[in-house]
Design goal:
Elements lengths: L7 E6 L7 E5 L4 E6 L5 H18 L4 H4 L12 E3 L4 E4 L12 H4 L2 H12 L1 E4 L2 E6 L4 H11 L4 E9 L5 H10 L26 E10 L5 H14 L3 E5 L5 E6 L2 E2 L6 E2 L24 E5 L1 H4 L21 H11 L15 H9 L14 H9 L5 H8 L2 E5 L15 E2 L5 H6 L2 H9 L7 H19 L16 H15 L5 E5 L7 H16 L3 E5 L3 H6 L2 E6 L8 E6 L1 H4 L6 H11 L15 E9 L2 E9 L3 E6 L5 H14 L7 E3 L5 E5 L12 H4 L4 H8 L2 H6 L23 E4 L7 E4 L10 H4 L8 H5 L3 H4 L7 H12 L16 H8 L14 E6 L7 H16 L3 E5 L3 H5 L3 E6 L8 E6 L10 H7 L5 H16 L7 E6 L7 E5 L4 E5 L6 H18 L4 H4 L10 E5 L4 E4 L12 H4 L2 H12 L1 E2 L13 H12 L6 E11 L3 H9 L4 E4 L2 E4 L11 E10 ...
Helix pairs in contact: 4-15, 5-7, 14-15, 15-16, 16-17, 37-44, 38-40, 43-44, 44-45, 48-49, 56-57, 57-58, 58-59
């Protein structure tokens, strides 16, 4: 079944000013969203469509990761179906990482390193003209045949004697099989040597003597090969008299010096890899050093005048004194300007006296001073001081190339990789464009990708950049276009790409190429949405959405949604009207009267970037445009030449002006203000008259308020609680932070009493809420305000509110706002200002541009000069002067190609003149564009297939395959064949990696780092979501609530809006602002006398506290209250220092006459003294505490502010101190519990008496939420409820307006997850249920529920055996759920062995044919029926024939009738546990028993929770009978051990391996240690361990790899260069046993080891067991963390059988056997591996053991001697025994849920 890609359907969007709009977006469409400025375009695209798509994709990550990612707030919408993962390509450069370059942003560096490593040749570092080639045995033999023909040659190698004496060394050589060595040109036999005739430290050992002839070539090759192997890559060919004829070597060696070099891989050509990065600068290309210009900022000063900046001030002035004291000694004049001091003496001042020694009396130098400081950088102030004098400098080691030095000697066509990276992209493209194909995909595929991406960069007008350009130096427009090409290069499909005005910085001539890029991105199956006003882009769109009708609150509606052809006919569309006007009328606008000027700005000999000796004259007092192609040098001219020179006094002399300027202002699009405290009316200086008008009102005068109080930034009128902000920011951890209205002023920003004052019927908050257009007619009587507001309207900003925070404005709005101050006429005598602008039309609709032009004219009419970088034709046509740069970009630009009035450009043929005086929008052109648009819409019907070429990750053998999209695809094959490598390590990794590249580098560091997989090419990939196998049950703290993430959301909700109550008396805690406390105290005093105000000094603290009382006396306080008793501060004698005391100071006793303002000041004073707390004792003696923090009003005890960690039983801050958050007391805890009490009476696992099993501390247990129905629950109580009741309660919560925003942010996610639980039939589980108690099926369904409920579309879901833990009947429900996911337009890639799932899939990919190195190949692919028909693979054979049962031909007979003995069964009765009610069962001994049943029926509770625990206890107590209130058990002590073979990891570090776990490594070490060579070297078996000192490589501590820390990158592990990854010292590697050294044995698979160790019975049988278990592909030294859960479980089984072998070999007399429990051992097993497992289990039973398996796999159930089925359903509807007996009786049981499926695999007898 193949489904078409579904459209995004949005309904009811009400974000910001949107008016409940809805729309549909289709895959493959290029959509432009346009409209007047401020109508809601960006809100629709970025705050709604992009935010929701990105939010849903980010939801697939863990809560920990999500808190660091740029997850956007949930938009205010009714619904969005088929949401796509979204990538925003915005106009901003957020790169802060110095590692990032144009090459890394576009991934070109990744392709270059692969291509370059294949094509580059090594140039000899000592002879650069010589190219070295790699030698091997064959080439050396042919060279010998050519150069030494007919000579008798002796081949051999040199060997050091080491610590051995001569006799032992010679004996060692003989033992190793050598017969001759060279002595004085002769080659005597070693055994013939007389004692004392040889005693050198090394010997030339002969390997062979050969006559060099063609017929002896094979022998020559063998001799060279052996001598090179024994000589570690070096050997020699000598004549018969010992003369050296030829040096022999393998690999890369210099012919000149003999130095050996290694072939470099791709990592060596990456500066982001520790293998390739320069070790000095770590790949940055720059190092941080002391900057001489910062140390000596003014060279005109003398030493005495402070030339040496760091010696100023008191801290290091002693250094200056040291220097002045020695100036006479060195004949240095301290009053001479620094620049006039001779170079030799300046060197002395910097470097110090060469004879200086520490603590000597000579000058240590300025550099010596800084080196001394470097030793003290552990001090914060030293680090701060050094930062003032440091700068970035080119790395002296790599010269800025970022690479290791040796990398530079690898070259292609004479060019190193850093040379290629430094080329302009246009030159680089031309260099690579015509390279012919080599037919080698390792070379051709990366080269094709390089050329494609370079072409994209050229198409968006960035050919002037180079790949080494730092990302931080790019403009916002350049960054956006680079990201756009990266998106296209990434090859993602079915993704929403949101772009914000991508034409910024582009000349009109370049826009056509940009449009092609956008259309290509859409045609790949993506939705490309662009906020844009450019005419060319709009005309190229498939769909145009216009927002309107007016800006601001009058906007937010879709006034048009259709094609370009339709918008031209739309009468109500401003965009359509402008497009029609431009198409049908002359493009030449009226030529306005232009000013003339005799004053000029002259540029001479400016040389920077691509400007070379640049010269130009620009008239002043005019509106001048700087135009030209992208990259022609416009920004360099405006920013780096004109602005930098004029702003700093023209130090380089490049710029001269005829008139002086009052100021030189660069008005860019940066935010006007970063805080919300500034607004438009403040910025334009229009608020003061309004404030003064408010202050003049009678109400203000009567209330004592002045004009200054009508400000939310200062004065007495602003709200104290929020300090005039009007809102509070609530940190939401893994959710986006939200702003909620201030609880006191409710967002009004001002005090209530001030808001009662009105001006013309409006209070100050209402006034600030007016738009500029609404405010203008209200303030005609305030001329200054009226004038300023009029200017805002002229700028097209009339829709802004007066009080709108400036940090919410767009870049274009900010830029236009900055223009206001220059639009007023200058006063007489004032100097003019030079104003520089960069693309002010950004963000402006066509109808707004003319308004902007009029404003720009007002600026020049006011006497100012205006220089504007601009490409917009309307602006260019109406400017006074145009300076055009070109003719091309980069090094082809930087020249003046036009300089004059717009009309004077008419006769020229430049890009700008063609734009001004030609009509690109002719009717024919328009029709052609529309035809292309229609073609663009129709060409995308369904998604392209996912194409993979050359996957060679792990054991994959260069797999290439096309995987159909929008289908249910199963990847199957034998265990370890490479299925997961293909699905997860290649496809999922690449899909997520490509999407994650769009996230910030900060966020990416918290996501599990996914490297680029080893694959040549992947095309057509969607963003991926992995649903992996997680069978581990978590710790005892893990609950249903935590694994569904509901508990995390509830903690957040309780922490933010919960009511915190006192643990003592349950009363709600109170926290107040000083203002609120003052009001309460004023109301309580209410004119009465005798009330007393206290400030606490000491609370519950021991000590005599005399110093505190003395302090109170000094402050003028006459009395204190100590432990409730009044004492005078005079003659205070102190308190009992060993008792706990409470001390308060009396601040004021009220007499009833104090004014409210006085009381308010006293309260603030008391709060300051009391650190946020104060006490009021009424005239009646009643105590009441007040606190800025939450406190108990009756006791005054303050509690910490709530945060989620206080409600987490996994945090020390939140867990119960007694049980550490477990809710139970275990024996291992008792040592830390108090000695007093009855803790010792508690049995291991009893409920904690302190928290009553609720896990939390008393603070967390006393936070409540209350519903409208007056229900109130703490978090633990809520978690104990069923999901349905929780949902009803939360949706009925009673909250205020402030908390409603928080509830709205959290509740939808909680509701979604609670609904998911219901959808998968788990509504009976409480959220506090331990996950360890869940069945496998319940665990699997919970995990799937959360992932499958994200409601994404266009995603590739990669699932790892989702059928795990599911009964066949439940598995069908899962398949139905997956189909629903597919129907939403998603693709499914499922790694699976379940036959029913495979049969119901749309497409099968089989990897095999075996495991490990014998796997990794594509065995079969196609639809299920096609595979069955062909019958070529293991899967196909099983699908068609199945497995014969029972595999042994019979089932074991059970004891029956009178022959049944009492001790032949394990008997369990009266089981009452969880959903099991009065259950009785019997389990036959020495039989294979399977417990089956539907998911959640109670199987695990019965077998793991009762039977296994009971047997363990019976063995421990050696009791035949165990009785408890949960169960009774008989005969459990008949077993030697109870063993649960789980899927938990066998080790968590790289030091654990299968060989060490099985215990065979010790035996192997002993065998090698017994070698004569090992004994000769004095080695023991301990020396052959890589975990302890001795024979291991100490450089890597036996790990074989070394951890390398890389700044801004995840830590990397590289191969140890000392041992080359072999873990051991070289002398151990030289020892060989049966031809293998210790490292090579570790690299053996178990299959290889089974053959190799066949002489050793125990080793051979152990390795044979591993092979029988289906794990023969694992390596002996494979690190344990790389094993899957299934592999770990089978390894444990093999270990148990191996222990049995060992017991047999010892002839153990213990007749007792073991009791084994396994849960779902078939996980991860292909049917052919299941057969192996079945034989293994039978072997255990044949040894007399009792095996009980919890299983759903019908093939394993069919092998059981005895079956127990639990059911009939899950949860409370289960827990009953449906069947107990043989397979034959089960098949006849009509109540069985399993029999139906079992009949399919068991043939009737």
């Amino acid at each position: 079944m193949k489904t078409k890609s579904q459209p995004i359907i949005l309904k009811g969007a009400r974000q910001n000013n949107l008016k409940g709009i809805g729309l549909s977006l289709f895959p493959g469409e290029f959509t432009v969203i346009t409209g007047l400025s401020g109508t809601g375009k960006s809100t629709l695209l970025f705050d709604v469509l992009h935010a929701e798509g990105q939010r849903r994709y980010v939801e697939t990550f863990s809560p920990y990761v999500r808190q660091f990612m740029e997850s956007l707030p949930r938009p205010q919408i009714e619904s969005m179906t088929n949401a796509r993962p979204s990538i925003a390509v915005e106009q901003k450069n957020s790169v802060r990482n110095s590692r990032s370059t144009v090459g890394t942003m576009t991934e070109l560096c990744d392709y270059f390193k692969v291509w370059f490593s294949q094509v580059a040749k090594l140039h000899d570092p000592d002879n650069p003209n010589e190219i070295l080639s790699e030698e091997n045995t064959s080439t050396q033999a042919r060279t010998c045949l050519k150069e030494l023909i007919d000579q008798t040659v002796v081949f051999g190698f040199w060997m050091n004697r080491g610590n051995l004496n001569v006799t032992d060394f010679l004996h060692f050589l003989i033992t190793a099989g050598h017969s001759r060595i060279m002595i004085n040109g002769q080659f005597p036999r070693i055994e013939d040597l007389a004692e004392g005739t040889w005693g050198e430290t090394s010997a030339f050992v002969v390997v062979d003597q050969v006559r060099v002839k063609q017929k002896n070539l094979s022998r020559i090759s063998d001799a060279i090969n052996l001598s090179l192997e024994l000589g570690k890559g070096l050997s020699e060919a000598r004549s018969q008299n010992g003369h050296l004829l030829k040096n022999l070597h393998v690999g890369l060696r210099s012919f000149k010096t003999g130095k050996q070099y290694t072939k470099l891989g791709p990592s060596s050509f990456s500066f982001n890899s520790p293998v390739g990065a320069c070790p000095n600068c770590k790949g940055f290309g720059k190092v941080i050093e002391i900057n001489p210009h910062l140390v000596i900022p003014d060279a005109s000063l003398s030493i005495n005048q402070g030339a040496i900046k760091p010696f100023e001030g008191k801290v290091y002035s002693n250094c200056l004194q040291d220097l002045l004291r020695l100036c006479g000694h060195y004949k240095i004049n301290p009053d001479q300007p620094w620049k006039k001091i001779s170079a030799k003496k300046r060197t002395l001042l910097w470097d110090g006296d060469p004879q200086y020694k520490e603590d000597g009396d000579l000058w240590y130098g300025i550099n010596g001073f800084f080196k001394w400081l470097e030793k003290k950088t552990y001090k914060m102030h030293v680090r701060v001081f050094l930062s003032k004098y440091r700068g970035y400098f080119e790395c002296p080691e790599c010269k800025g190339s970022r690479f290791k030095r040796e990398t530079e000697f690898w070259r292609w066509n004479g060019l190193s990789l850093s040379d290629l990276y430094s080329m302009p992209l246009s030159d680089l493209y031309n260099l690579l464009e015509n390279i012919q194909s080599t037919q080698n995909p390792k070379i051709d595929l990366p080269l094709d990708a390089i050329r494609t991406r370079l072409g994209y960069l050229r198409d968006v007008g960035l050919e002037y950049l180079n790949l080494n350009r730092s990302s931080r130096s790019l403009s916002g427009g350049e960054t956006q276009r680079i990201n756009l090409t990266a998106c296209l290069g990434a090859g993602l499909t079915d993704t929403l790409f949101a772009l914000d005005e991508p034409t910024i910085g582009l000349h009109s001539q370049d826009i056509g190429r940009l449009v092609k890029i956008l259309r290509d991105l859409a045609s790949s199956g993506n939705m490309v949405c662009v906020v844009e006003h450019d005419e060319q882009v709009i005309r190229a769109a498939d769909r145009v959405i216009e927002m309107g009708p007016q800006p601001g609150i009058a906007g937010g509606e879709i006034i048009f949604n259709g094609s370009v052809k339709e918008i031209l006919r739309a009468k109500k569309s401003p965009t359509g009207q402008w497009l029609t006007k431009i198409s049908t009328q002359s493009v030449e606008l009226p030529d306005p009267p232009r000013p003339t000027s005799s004053n000029n700005l002259e540029i001479q000999n400016a040389t920077i970037h691509n400007l070379k000796n640049f010269e130009a004259k620009i008239p002043l007092g005019m509106f001048t445009c700087i135009s030209g192609l992208s990259g022609s040098g416009k920004s360099t001219l405006l920013h780096d030449v004109i602005y930098e020179e004029l702003a700093t006094g023209s130090p380089k002399g490049w710029v001269k002006t005829d008139i002086p300027f009052a100021d030189v202002i660069l008005i860019d699009q940066s935010t006007v203000a970063k805080s919300p405290r500034s607004n438009p009316v403040l910025f334009v200086d229009a608020w003061n008259p309004i404030k003064e008008a408010f202050g003049r009102t009678d109400q203000a005068k009567a209330s004592g308020f002045y004009a200054v109080d009508f400000s939310f930034n200062s004065g007495n009128g602003r709200c104290d609680a929020c300090s005039g902000l009007g809102y509070e920011t609530v940190e939401m951890q893994f959710l986006p932070d939200i702003s909620v209205p201030c609880s006191l002023c409710n967002g009004a920003r001002f005090k209530e009493e001030l808001l009662e004052i009105h001006l013309d019927g409006l209070n100050v908050a209402d006034t600030l809420n007016l738009t500029v257009s609404e405010a203008l007619p209200r303030f005609t009587n305030l001329p200054k305000t009226h004038k300023k507001l009029s200017l805002l309207i002229d700028l097209g900003l009339g829709y802004l509110k007066l009080g709108q925070p400036l940090n919410t404005l767009s870049g274009g709005e900010s830029q236009r706002l900055k223009l206001v101050k220059f639009m007023s006429p200058m006063n007489a005598g004032n100097k003019s200002t030079l104003i520089l602008l960069d693309e002010p039309t950004t963000g402006l609709h066509l109808s707004d541009v003319q308004q902007l032009i009029n404003c720009l004219r007002k600026i020049t009419q006011s006497g100012n000069s205006l220089l504007v970088i601009e490409h917009h034709s309307m602006v260019l046509q109406q400017s006074d002067w145009i300076l055009e740069l070109g003719p091309g970009a980069g090094k082809l630009g930087g020249k003046v190609i036009a300089n004059g009035t717009p009309s004077s450009l008419q006769s020229l043929n430049t890009p700008t003149s063609r734009l001004l005086h030609s009509s690109p929008n002719s009717v024919a052109c328009l029709q052609s564009q529309m035809a292309m648009n229609q073609k663009g819409i129709s060409k995308f019907e369904t998604k392209k297939d996912l194409e993979i070429i050359g996957a060679h990750e792990n054991n994959l053998k260069n797999i290439s395959i096309s995987i159909p999209s929008n289908q249910f695809v199963v990847v199957t094959g034998p265990s370890g064949s490479g299925k997961s490598s293909l699905a997860f390590d290649v496809i999922f990794a690449e899909g997520q990696r490509r999407f994650m590249e769009s996230m910030s580098s900060y966020a990416r560091q918290f996501v599990e780092q996914i490297g680029r997989p080893k694959v040549d090419l992947i095309n057509g990939i969607s963003p991926t979501v992995a649903i992996e196998q997680r069978i581990h049950r978590g710790s005892k703290k893990s609950t249903v609530g935590s694994i569904t993430e509901i508990a995390q959301y509830l903690r957040l909700l309780y922490a933010k809006i919960g009511i915190q109550c006192s643990p003592v008396n349950g009363t709600p805690l109170i926290a107040s602002t000083p203002q609120q406390i003052s009001r309460k105290i004023v109301s309580k005093i209410n004119g009465t006398s005798g009330a007393q105000l206290f400030a606490p000094l000491v609370t519950n603290r021991k000590g005599h506290h005399k110093p505190l009382i003395n302090w109170a006396k000094e402050q003028g306080f006459p009395f204190v209250r100590c432990d409730g008793e009044f004492l005078s501060t005079d003659n205070f004698k102190g308190l009992d220092r060993y008792r706990i005391h409470n001390v308060e100071v009396l601040v004021k006793e009220f007499d009833g006459n104090q004014k409210p303002r006085v009381i308010e000041d006293l309260v603030k004073y008391a709060l300051d003294i009391g650190k946020g707390r104060c006490l009021l004792i009424s005239s009646k003696g009643e105590n009441e505490w007040f606190s800025l923090r939450k406190s108990d009003p009756s006791t005054g005890v303050a509690y910490p502010d709530l945060e989620p960690s206080l409600l987490s039983w996994n945090s020390p801050r939140g867990w119960c101190l007694s049980c550490k958050g477990y809710g139970k007391i275990y024996d291992w805890m008792k040592e830390e519990l108090p000695a007093s009490g009855d803790w010792w009476k508690l049995v291991d696992g009893d409920i904690c008496p302190d928290c009553k099993g609720e896990r939390l501390s008393e603070i967390g247990r006393n936070v409540f939420l209350t519903s409208r129905k007056k229900q109130s629950y703490s978090l633990p109580k809520l978690l104990s409820l069923p999901p349905g009741e929780i949902k009803d309660f939360l949706n009925d919560l009673m909250v205020n307006n402030q908390n409603k925003a928080i509830l709205d942010a959290v509740l939808p996610d909680i509701n979604d997850r609670l609904s998911f639980m219901k959808n998968v039939g788990l509504e009976y589980l409480s959220l506090d249920r331990e996950t360890a108690s869940l069945s496998g099926g319940e665990s699997q369904r919970i995990r799937l529920a959360g992932q499958l409920g994200s409601n994404l579309s266009g995603v590739l879901y990669v699932l790892d055996e989702p059928s795990i833990g599911l009964h066949p009947s439940d598995n069908q429900k899962l398949i139905d759920s997956l189909r629903k996911l597919q129907e939403k337009g998603n693709s499914l890639l499922v790694v699976e062995h379940d036959m029913e799932t495979i049969l119901q899939s749309d497409y099968i990919i089989e990897i095999g044919p075996k495991a490990g190195e014998n796997g990794g190949r594509l065995v079969e692919k196609g639809k299920p029926d096609q595979l069955i028909k062909r019958g070529r693979s293991q899967t196909a054979m099983y699908l068609s024939k199945g497995m014969k049962h029972p595999v042994r031909g019979f089932w074991r007979k059970l004891p029956s009738g009178k022959h049944e003995k009492q001790n032949q069964f394990l008997e369990v009765s009266k089981v009452n546990f969880r959903n099991l009610k009065n259950v009785d069962i019997k389990i036959p001994l020495s039989k294979l028993t399977v417990c089956c049943g539907v998911s959640g029926a109670g199987k695990s509770s019965l077998i793991r929770g009762i039977v296994f625990q009971g047997v363990e206890k019976s063995i421990r107590e050696n009791s035949n009978k165990i009785q408890s209130n949960q169960f009774n058990l008989l005969h459990g002590n008949l077993f030697r051990k109870a063993i649960e073979v789980s899927q938990s990891p066998i080790g968590k570090t790289s030091r654990s391996t299968p060989a060490t776990y099985l215990g065979v490594w010790s035996r192997i070490r002993e065998l090698i240690a017994n070698l004569p060579e090992a004994k000769a070297l004095g080695l023991s078996s301990g020396d052959f361990s890589f975990n302890v000192q001795g024979g291991r490589c100490e450089s890597c501590k036996g790990a074989g790899v070394i951890k390398v820390e890389m700044n801004f990158l995840p830590d990397s592990y590289i191969r140890c260069e000392q041992c080359l990854g072999k873990r051991y010292k070289d002398e151990l590697i030289q020892l060989r046993w049966h031809g293998k050294n210790i490292a090579e044995i570790l690299e053996m698979t178990f299959e290889e080891a089974e053959v190799f160790f066949q002489f050793d019975e125990v080793l051979h049988k152990t390795f044979s067991l591993m092979t029988q278990t289906g794990l023969g592909y694992l390596k002996l030294g494979q690190t344990s963390p790389t094993l899957s859960g299934g592999e770990a479980q089978r390894l444990k089984l093999a270990s148990e059988l191996a222990n049995g072998l060992e017991l047999k070999s010892r002839k153990s007399t213990n007749s007792k056997k073991n009791f084994y429990v396994l849960e779902e051992p078939t996980i991860g097993l292909h049917p052919q591996d299941c057969q192996k497992l079945t034989h293994l289990l039978h072997e255990l039973v044949d040894d007399g053991h009792t095996v009980v398996v919890i299983e759903h796999d019908v093939d394993l159930i069919a092998e059981a001697d005895y079956v127990i089925e639990v059911g009939p359903k899950g949860g409370l509807s289960g827990g009953r025994i449906l069947h107990e007996g043989t397979i034959e009786s089960l098949l006849r049981n009509s109540k069985s849920q399993t029999a139906h499926y079992l009949k399919k695999v068991i043939s009737p007898s």
